[in-house]
Write a structure and sequence with these properties.
Elements lengths: L2 H13 L9 E5 L2 E2 L3 E2 L5 H13 L3 E5 L6 H4 L8 E6 L6 E2 L4 E10 L19 E5 L8 H8 L6 E5 L12 H7 L5 E5 H7 L7 E5 L12 E8 L4 H13 L1 H10 L23
Parallel strand pairs: 1-4, 1-5, 8-9, 8-10
Antiparallel strand pairs: 2-3, 5-12, 6-12, 7-10, 7-11, 7-12
Length: about 280
């Protein structure tokens, strides 16, 4: 696509002839959700959004809202913004673009420990103190929770709310702090959390991505991650697809800077990832 004028003309397509020309790339985002985004625009999704806005020759604007239940309804579907960064491919409430990265869950434990967890089938998990992120009061709502429960590993599992206390920065990092403080032995968390927060602790932590894409219990651990737009905005999604192809090398470099464990992107991903990662 040649030049800012051509990009802007293509952008007008998704807005429709009856809508005014876009004055900004309007992104719906969480103000306290590192390493993805925060109000200081320090997350990797902020960096990627900046790149897309530059491609479109548009300023970047945000609608900030904690990414709890109803996020899509209160932001994208309410018309306050036009784009959600970082949703699992096929996530039903939105139209998803082509994926721009694929990651997996990971084990995090203290370097030099007497154990070295490599698999969900490791027998050590039956007696180690395990931490997992939970979304609500029901612990059976994330892939690690489901996979552990399928193996009868329940009593030694501790849940950490993924949304946490928003009066404090980086609430999702509490689970990694617990590993560093020896409050738990191992955390099983979404890879971007592990890769970003583990190196920032006061003691060395080891991050081991889960190699198996789908657990023996049937739970997916690896997910393609896309951008999300309104279902009606098909032309906008197509435009974003072209930008993601063009910017893939730069996007991958940004992700690597934040320590995101990256896997080869699969051609298709049938899972919706509704409870897999921190989703709207």
């Amino acid at each position: 696509m040649a030049g800012a004028a051509g990009v802007l003309a293509a952008t007008l397509l998704f807005m429709g002839v009856a809508r005014p020309a876009p004055r900004a790339l309007r992104v719906c985002a969480d103000p306290n959700n590192m390493p993805f985004s925060n109000a200081r625009r320090a997350g990797f999704e902020n960096r990627i959004a900046e790149r897309l806005a530059k491609d479109l020759a548009l300023p970047l604007e945000y609608t900030w809202l904690p990414q709890g239940r109803g996020f899509v309804r209160k932001t994208l579907n309410a018309g306050t913004c036009d784009l959600i960064m970082g949703v699992p491919q096929g996530y039903d409430p939105v139209r998803t673009t082509r994926p721009y990265f694929r990651s997996t869950y990971a084990f995090v434990y203290r370097t030099g420990s007497a154990y070295a967890v490599r698999s969900m089938d490791d027998t050590m998990l039956t007696h180690l103190r395990i931490g997992i992120h939970v979304i609500g009061d029901d612990y059976q709502n994330t892939p690690p929770a489901e996979a552990l429960a399928a193996r009868g590993i329940i009593d030694n599992v501790r849940g950490f709310p993924i949304f946490g206390d928003y009066s404090r920065p980086d609430p999702a990092a509490a689970i990694i702090h617990a590993v560093a403080r020896d409050s738990i032995d191992v955390a099983i968390v979404w890879g971007p959390f592990a890769g970003y927060f583990a190196p920032r602790e006061h003691v060395p932590l080891t991050v081991v991505p889960i190699e198996r894409a789908v657990d023996a219990s049937g739970q997916p651990f690896a997910y393609n991650i896309s951008l999300g737009v309104r279902h009606a905005d098909s032309a906008f999604a197509t435009l974003l697809d072209s930008l993601l192809v063009r910017d893939q090398a730069d996007i991958s470099s940004i992700l690597q800077t934040y320590g995101v464990p990256l896997l080869p992107i699969t051609p298709t991903d049938s899972s919706t990832g509704r409870n897999a990662v921190r989703t709207p």
